[in-house]
Amino acid sequence: MRTFNDLVEEATAVDVSGWSFDWLDGRATEERPPWGYARQLAARLARVGSALDIDTGGGEIIGEAARLPARMVVTEGWPPNVELARRRLASRGVEVVHVEQGKPLPFPDAGFELVSSRHPVAPDWLEIARVLAGGGTYFAQHVGPGSAFELIEWFLGPLERTARDPGHEATAARAAGLEVVDLRTVRCRMEFFDIGAVVYILRKCVWWVPGFTVEAYREPLERLDAHIREHGAFVAHSSRTLVEAGRPAY
Q1: Between the CA of residue 2 and those of 74, 194, 201, 202, what are the distances in Å?
Q2: Which domains are delineated in the chain?
Q3: Which among 77, 72, 128, 118 is positioned nearest to 246, based on CA atoms?
Q4: Could you cite one Gene Ontology molecular function of this protein (predicted)?
Q5: What span, in angstroms and rounded, lies between the C-alpha atoms of 121 and 127?
Q6: Would you say residue 227 has pLDDT above 90?
Q7: Closest by Cα among 145, 208, 131 to 177
Q8: DSSP label at 59?
Q9: For the chain, how big is the Rg over CA atoms in Å?
Q10: Can you give the pLDDT at residue 189?
């Protein structure tokens, strides 16, 4: 294996914009949930006339769909990803809207038959319910509780694992007037085969270890590098929740 410094320098220099993880091919793996979110979403998009995808990243999931509704809108809060989404989706007539995290959605009430999101930062259930048309559906894959905590706690120490509890999310959805149709959570094995993969993921998922830099966390990075070299990989587990909720037609 290459030296610690070589791997870290490479991972520090690579572009981490967008929501593609192709750079990790051969360097890290993550087991996928059994329900096939992208495939299910694509099928739903083909059956509606209007849809909104929230926190779309670089538009990767919407870009995979073979058929899009007549009105397709996506929102994203990070400006570099907004530009990536526009480049990816503009030719297909998708409207890309910059919406800062925590701000209301700039759309009228009951404007979309389908609202979707893969890994939203913080679902705003009242806003989701407001923009859904009567009889419409919210279909999403959320990050579940304690996701990747083996890796995060390596750097931050023990953390409370109460955030992103699917039961709490279901309660919030119902409080916003939605009917929860499906709610499933699964844990998926993750493996990191070199320290560069770890640096890359922490630069990309900036909320995992807030303020992460190689300089600030060099000591735990060096310990983790030694662990990977001894054991062949560092193992963690992601957590994913499939959510389907409908707005009553009445």
Answers
A1: 40, 9, 19, 20
A2: 4-246 (3.40.50.150)
A3: 128
A4: S-adenosylmethionine-dependent methyltransferase activity
A5: 14
A6: yes
A7: 131
A8: T
A9: 19
A10: 98
Helices 218-231 and 149-156, interaxial angle, to 10°? 140
Cα–Cα dist 210/138, whole Å:
30
What is residue 132's three-state secondary structure?
strand
pTM of the model: 0.90
Structural contact between residues 247 and 177, judged by C-beta atoms closer than 8 angstroms: yes
CB 137 within 8 A of CB 44: yes
State the Cα torsion 26-27-31-35 to the nearest 10°: -70
Cβ proximity of 155 and 201 under 8 Å: no
Q: Return the closest-CA partner of residue 41 out of 81, 68, 2.
A: 68
Residues 133-174: tens digit of each pLDDT: 999 999 999 999 999 999 999 999 998 776 789 999 999 999
The residue-averaged pLDDT of 103-124 equals: 96
Q: Report the distance separating Cα 127 and Cα 148, nearest Å.
A: 28
